[in-house]
Amino acid sequence: MSSAGTQLATQSSTEARAKLRVLLIEDSRADAELVLRGLRDGGFDVSVDLAQTPEEFRARVKETVPDIVLADYNLGQWRGMEALKILREEGRDVPLILVSGALGDITAVECIKRGATDYVLKDSLTRLPESVRRALREKKLREESRKAEANLAAKAAELARSNAELEQFAYVASHDLQEPLRMVAAYTQLLSERYRGKLDDNADKFLGYASEGAQRMQVLIQDLLAFSRVGRREAPSEKVDCNAVMKEVLQALGAAIQESGAVVTYGSLPAVWADRTQVAQVFQNLIGNALKFRGPEPPRVVVQAERAGQQWLFAVSDSGIGIAPEHRENIFVVFQRLHARTEYPGNGIGLAICKKIIERYGGRIWVESQPGAGSTFRFTMPGEASDPKEEGRK
Ligand code: ADP
Fold it and tell me: For residue 298, what is the DSSP state?
């Protein structure tokens, strides 16, 4: 029984024996021995390098990277804490524990503030192994979080690159497709005008479908082009008075407002820092939708804004048909629509453009709605210039 017990103890101490490269700053041989024994007794398989001067220390650190630096506080010629500076200069993230005779509490706290990981008094060296273990664990965590951050930054850069590439592709594709499509549209149109009634009934029907398809494709491509144009230029910021923008938008939507008998009201709206044309586009798309997706009654549309920190929170509310909860996200995706074109006209690009514009300025857009109970589209826009140039102009 006792022999089995001994075996177990030996086994577990071998398993726990972790290799540890120590760089020791110590001018007393006897103290150095004590420190090493403390570590070995505490379960480390220690290899050690000794440094007694700053020059020696720098040379050792350049040669190999230790797992830990154990430094006496006062070595006559220099202080162990100065080793921290050398570690930084050499770009080494190695924990440093002060192992010192007597160190007042105030000095100890000061050393920790300046970057020492811990301090252990020479007359309580039994504490040293645990202090070393903790320092190593903390270093590992630091490394892991540094790695995770670098990983994240690399992923974000990759995403930005692939987004830019996709944007470029959408732009070039939609731009270059326009020309051949114009030919197809023009010639199917010509064919159907010139040969209508001269071939058989089916031919007339087929030509009609072809020319309708070409026209629809033209509209889709123009929409895609408009969508990809939103992100192509640098996001310019000017002070945009939303009241003035609303006046223009209501004029542009004049026919739809009259035809639907709509009442559109807006309170005193703030100025935002963004691109004027794009702000107008957001209002026009949202109010246009509020007029289009109306119920049997003439639509009532209210536009309001309130402060939300540095931003303005806008709300465009309508009394229309509303949106089911499961569609609240996907309506912002390009070409996503909830109705047949015969029911409500449109291509499903308007909200995607709104989202793209708003997100360029660091804002967010979402909808609160219930079917049959109207919808409120909310979005945020920057309220003040984030650019110091703009600040100066105020
Ligand atoms: P479009 O208006 O061309 O269909 P949008 O991207 O502007 O495209 O809108 C996407 C879809 O979101 C619409 O087809 C409609 O189903 C829904 N929608 C947008 N605005 C409203 C609204 N105010 N009320 C109800 N549904 C809406």
Answer: P
